[in-house]
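My hope is that you will study the protein record below before we discuss the fold together.
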Amino acid sequence: MTARHSIIGIAENLKWIEGKGFRREDILKDTGIDDVRLSDPNATVDVPEELAFYQNIISLSNDPLIMYKAGLNLQISSYGMWGLALLSSPTVAKAIDFGIQYIEFSYTYNRVEFFQEAGNTGLRITKKTELDTMQQSMTEKDLAAIFIIFKALLEVKTPYKEIRVTWPKTQQSEQYRDMFLCPVIFSCDYTEILFEPEYLSRELRQNNALTVQLCKEQLEQRLPIFKKDDSTTQKVNDYLTQTPLFKVNIEDCAAQLKISSRHLRRKLIQEGTSFKAIQDQFRQVMAEKYLRQTDMTLEDIAERLGYSDAANFSNAFKRWTSLSPRAFAKSQKPLP
């Protein structure tokens, strides 16, 4: 688990759920979050703490739509400098670019990517951190939170054109249209938010280049705090960063960590992952970076990532993303 979030998002939703009559001690039970941390605007929470907080809200409320409502409760001001930078961007496209670049300062543990393909423009939300049984709930919160951000940027009532989600339709599904004011399609391959492509070039009323630069400098200073992670998963990622991928193996990694490979496997299982899963995710991130930012051939990328040939790399990439490397590179053209 590789990220921390500002305490402000928890504080905002704590105040909101307390207003519904629930006791603070019940909401914070087994989270490890106390009043001292809640009163410190520079404090952070880790993944287990935040998931425990929202699991308590789900259990206490007995409301199947509570995570959507939690996302809708987070106004753009709840994101501090990150939210201010979005509002101060010159266009919606630039705001999206900035938001994704500094996604650590949002309240998502998912991967959020811009895409334009098959005539659609939007954001795709995919799993980045192991959220276990909370995956759908935290994604529901993301859908609602992004809805509020888009409303603030565009100053419109209905910013979404369509929503597609991976989970099946339920009895509560009819209420989704009322919340988001757009069609919602269930049991899709990806969770996606679609919007009108002309939104991208829309100028933002509060745009201010100096404010964006100031926010960027402040976020850069804070970034190491939000990325701090002492987990075994992160240590394996550090090993992958420092080792040519064609040399990577679990025995060598374990030796560098001064533990046995068996112990390493056990520690990764406890964190809900495996050496192969981390290696695949690392390869995917690097592959997407090479395809997005360089003109390297598929053969060169395959060699850099430790594959025997371009065909094996292409098969792995399609397994990760459902797209061929060339199709992915084509979809990543710069925003206007």
